[in-house]
Design a protein that fits this description.
Mean pLDDT is 79; it is low at 1-22, 49-115, 165-173 and 219-228. The relative contact order is 0.08. It is globular and about 75 Å long. The chain starts with a helix and ends in a 35-residue tail after the last helix. It is an alpha+beta fold and 716 residues long. The protein has 3 domains: 2-230; 330-480, Galactose-binding lectin (Jelly Rolls); 487-698, Alpha/alpha barrel (Glycosyltransferase). The chain is 23% helix and 21% strand.
Amino acid sequence: MRKVVLTLFSMLFLLGFWGKVEAGNINYIDLAEGVSALDTSGRFVFGYDFGIADRGSKQTVGDVRFVPLGAQGAYAYLGIEGGVFHKEVWSKEDFMPPIAAGDPLEKILEDLIYRQPRFTICHLTPGNRYKLQILIRHGAGDRPFTVAFQDGDITDRTAALDQGDGRTIPGLDLPAAHWAAAILYEWEAQTDTLEIAVSGETAHVYGLTLEDLSGGHQMAEDSRCPATELRPSETFPRFIVPEFEQEMAALRELFWRHYINPIRGCTLWQDWMTYAALWPLTSAAEAKQYNYRPFHRNFLLKADFDEWGCVATHQHASYAHRDGWPFPTFEHSMGKGAGWVRGKLGEAAGWSCVGATAPKEDEGEVWSVEITQPGAYLLSPELAVDAFNAPFVEIRWKRKTDGGGDPYVEWTTEDEPDFSPERRMSFPGAEHDRGKGSLAFASIPLYRHPLWKGTIKRIRVFPAPDASSGKISINAVMTQYDTRHTINNSNFILGCRNYFVWTGELDFLRANLGRMRRAMQWLQQEAGGLEHGCILDPLPGHDGRPGYTGPPGQRVFLPGHGVGSNYWDILPFGHFDCYSSNYYYKALLAMAEIEEAVGHHPPWNLPAGGDAFDPQELRRHSERVRRVIQKKFWDNDKGRFVGWIDADSNRWDYGFTFLNLELIESGVASEKQARTILDWISGRRIIEGDTSTGEDIYHWRLAPRATTLRNIECYQ
């Protein structure tokens, strides 16, 4: 019945939107024999892989990927009227660049996943015959979708496609219950545009190609989709080198493409991306049009801090820590953690409620509970959770109650089988916590409680202990590793410094100066900067130890150890961390520069306050940090810096070229150390035992290999 209703709804929607004249040819590509059924050698004027393969997903069709085919050809733009198009926001919605109806797909693909998209291919040549291939992935289940095409007053639409209609594609590496279909549409263009609409609540456009079967396709100017957007504007800076005009034009276009496409917000990018994006001196109107300054400004002004002052990562959402990197999660704990997500809560999963009832109606991906008396709680099934592998418990939820008080969680252990107020921790109510959309994400730091230890047997959650009535909706309850990054605070400070130096916006500095100081306080107090003169990673699991021991085939895995601390996310940088210490050094100098500027400009009317830093003291401390790094992390035998020193005092070195070069750039490396490092990386100096030496270090020409010693022993 549900399938019939959805199909009818899809058809009525499309009929209501478009006319009833039908023409053109629709066929379905069957890849049962392999990907050769896809046409990958035609005269394509437009093609695109919608970012899925580039994001590291395994959801590809064999070796076939659709990629941009250059500046000449057709372009597409999205129609977002009527709420038909929905954007999936992986980071905070306010951090996303604005989307206008005239934006080309190239400008926004990296930040969007298409659900029920309606979009237009423009710059077509009327009278030419075209062939369009579309790959669509369906999220899960036997729910049909429909695709419709409109060119002027001519409309074509597919039949309702579902999982059992024989048009799915075998061989796709998709999650269980997911499926896909490939559609081929040929038509003669009546106008210069083709509108496409996809119905179905979990249908995702996966990629497409457009081929001109007639030849002679001509570009056309179209204000809805300006082809000139891919060419630098007249006010964009030029690089002038006689006899290298072509190369300089290519370099200018490279910078332009980055300029008009700000990268998605993530805290650890901020030192790098602000330098890359803010330097062009262009018109104010152009800066506003392409949003490069507002993008970074909004991110830095709205980046979240936790209650201790650690800056959130703001990478895409996952089952990992709200403020951290998207892995590892409880799913990687080898049974030492636990989680119930996206509708897998409730009685069927072994949960029960006391002082409350759980109505049976289907509410999708949440477990809905009605409170009937004060003191109501939710009780987990019996567990065998290792507290070390569960430093946090996160609840994704919302509540609507008559008051309620502060919620809290209690637990029992193998040694303490009864619940007790001694084993209790409160957390913010859903209406006061941070989250995504309408859900609050409550990350409860149970590792800070002295009695969160051993084997956890059960937990119970009091969502509104004082409420006598109300509704609780829970999307997920799960244990979590601490995937926060120690590099975040430094790069937040550096990003703020870069933004202010390039823009001179006093309102920005006035709003963020206190937050910069708070970020520095966390580095100095929580992360050991003042005590040790370098970063001693304070986060649980960030001990620098590998996540396994033993040779290949005989691994003994140690989940919970070696959790990553920076961009090099599968390496267990941690404990005494050279990489984070280098960014701490840079952040000290940036903070000193800002504090000095504030002190020298009283008319700015910026607050000094009790949390202000003495710039001279920051510089003196930075010199201590520089000396500590030079001595503590330098390997005299190999003549280079090691990555980190783990909690067992092991020094980990795989020839980290990126780390050593950044230590030269920051000024941490002494002149002698810098010369020694460059002799190694340039190939003039051979280090015995390295896998890559001499000219092979620059095998890729553009840059050296990231490491020069093969690593099979040390990953998280």
